[in-house]
Amino acid sequence: MKNYTITVNGNVYDVTVEEKGAGAAPAAPAPAAAPKAAPKAAPAPKAAGTGSIQVKAGAAGKVFKIEANVGQSVQAGDPVVIIEAMKMEIPVVAPEAGTVASIDVAVGDAVEAGAVLATLN
């Protein structure tokens, strides 16, 4: 028997695998255990000067381009970051009008859906 830790979609599972084949001794089946999820890390503290309005990724992908700069005024619907996913460029837009307080990603960063990319005041 060998023990492995496997992560699937962010959930961590400890599994035991029985080896079969030449020279392997028969083993009794292990009782089924409920998968245990790894504790989630606490959210990172906001850096000084970050805004209260979050601009979040709608899909997982890679940061292709940053359209706005810190201090720039944006209107609702203005693109802030462009994400590349499945060979498509997907604009992530400001949810409401404001001033860009922080850009929390860099070009080339891999991001998950729902990740905070920038904040606005």
UniProtKB/TrEMBL annotation:
Indicate yes or no for the key word Repressor: no
Keywords noted in UniProt? Biotin
According to the UniProt record, where is the region Disordered?
A: 24-48
Checking InterPro entries in the record gives:
Biotin_BS, Biotin_Carboxyl_Carrier/Decarb, Biotin_lipoyl, Single_hybrid_motif
> Ranges for the Lipoyl-binding domain?
52-121
Q: What single Pfam family name could you report for this chain, choosing any that match?
A: Biotin_lipoyl
What PANTHER family has UniProt attached to this entry? OXALOACETATE DECARBOXYLASE ALPHA CHAIN
Q: What is this protein called?
A: Acetyl-CoA carboxylase biotin carboxyl carrier protein subunit
Provenance organism:
Mediterraneibacter hominis
Starting at the broadest rank, the lineage of the source organism is:
Bacteria, Bacillati, Bacillota, Clostridia, Lachnospirales
